[in-house]
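[recover] target loaded
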């Protein structure tokens, strides 16, 4: 609480892929209880509508992801997923899923086209209910949507966020499609997909928020070589693949004020900049006119960002 609003916090993720993590000490009930406890604290401080509580899942929580329109959660996870989805619906919180077409393609190269996994505009895959999928990510998102609907929450407004997605630039023997070129293609298309307002075949009007995984390679991460090579950059800051990460205009008009919002959103969020000076009651919160406000905000944030890079 001491860091609000100086730090931009919009969601709290309780664990990561907890329900599909190996281990004998997993307690699904504890996960749900932790989410409820955190939400209760936010509610007591009047922050429950500004900061949501959720938990990211892997695609392994599904019994099957194809066909998307018939997907359900795994039978063993039904009680827990019912409790979690019910909590998300009541708290107006998003369902987060880590969706990786790469792994689906790697494990089924004979039945899945590479271009389909790379988010290319293919001829499409037809779902039995008539939905046409031009890329696997949309199919995975809709598989999650169908599983949520199958629990009886189809009439509730539950947003789906892709909390992780990416493509590795290197892998073990046999992972021949884990290359810098494919990583560039996938991540470029993923960013374009995230910046669009497109929905999915099942929910065409619901835009999807997407987080790219990952910014840096993780050379000490356990698992196969591909697990350590999802980064767009190496640990030393050098590029792994040439992906355009330049800031896009955050407003539909593409004007300078929209660009300023984009700079502010990044710096005050994942950038980790101390933004107290540009928040309410700060010295630079509200100069006399919008242009000077924009200049002031950009100068303050840019200076702070440069200082962080030098640490």
């Amino acid at each position: 609480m001491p860091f609000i609003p100086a730090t931009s916090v919009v969601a709290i993720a309780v664990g990561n892929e907890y329900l599909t993590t190996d281990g004998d000490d997993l307690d699904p009930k504890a996960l749900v209880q932790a989410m409820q406890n955190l939400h209760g604290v936010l509610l007591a401080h009047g922050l429950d509508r500004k900061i949501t509580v959720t938990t990211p899942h892997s695609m392994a929580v599904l019994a099957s992801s194809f066909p998307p329109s018939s997907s359900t959660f795994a039978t063993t996870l039904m009680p827990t997923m019912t409790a979690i989805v019910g909590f998300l619906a009541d708290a107006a919180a998003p369902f987060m899923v880590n969706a990786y077409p790469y792994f689906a393609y790697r494990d089924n190269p004979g039945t899945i086209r590479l271009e389909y996994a790379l988010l290319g505009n293919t001829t499409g895959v037809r779902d039995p209910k008539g939905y046409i999928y031009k890329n696997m990510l949309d199919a995975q998102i809709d598989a999650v949507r169908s599983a949520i609907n199958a629990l009886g929450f189809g009439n509730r407004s539950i947003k789906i966020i892709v909390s992780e997605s990416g493509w590795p630039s290197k892998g073990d023997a046999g992972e021949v499609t884990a290359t810098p070129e494919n990583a560039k293609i996938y991540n470029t298309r993923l960013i374009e997909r995230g910046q669009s307002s497109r929905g999915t075949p099942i929910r065409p009007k619901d835009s999807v928020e997407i987080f790219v995984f990952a910014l840096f390679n993780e050379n000490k991460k356990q698992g196969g070589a591909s697990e350590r090579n999802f980064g767009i950059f190496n640990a030393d800051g050098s590029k792994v693949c040439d992906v355009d990460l330049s800031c896009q205009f955050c407003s539909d008009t593409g004007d300078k004020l929209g660009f300023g919002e984009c700079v502010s959103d990044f710096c005050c969020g994942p950038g980790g900049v101390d933004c107290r000076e540009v928040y309410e009651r700060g010295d630079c919160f509200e100069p006399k006119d919008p242009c000077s406000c924009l200049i002031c905000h950009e100068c303050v944030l840019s200076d702070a960002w440069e200082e962080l890079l030098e640490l």
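[recover] notes: The helical segments are 28-44, 78-91, 101-107, 114-117, 136-153, 180-195, 256-268, 290-310.
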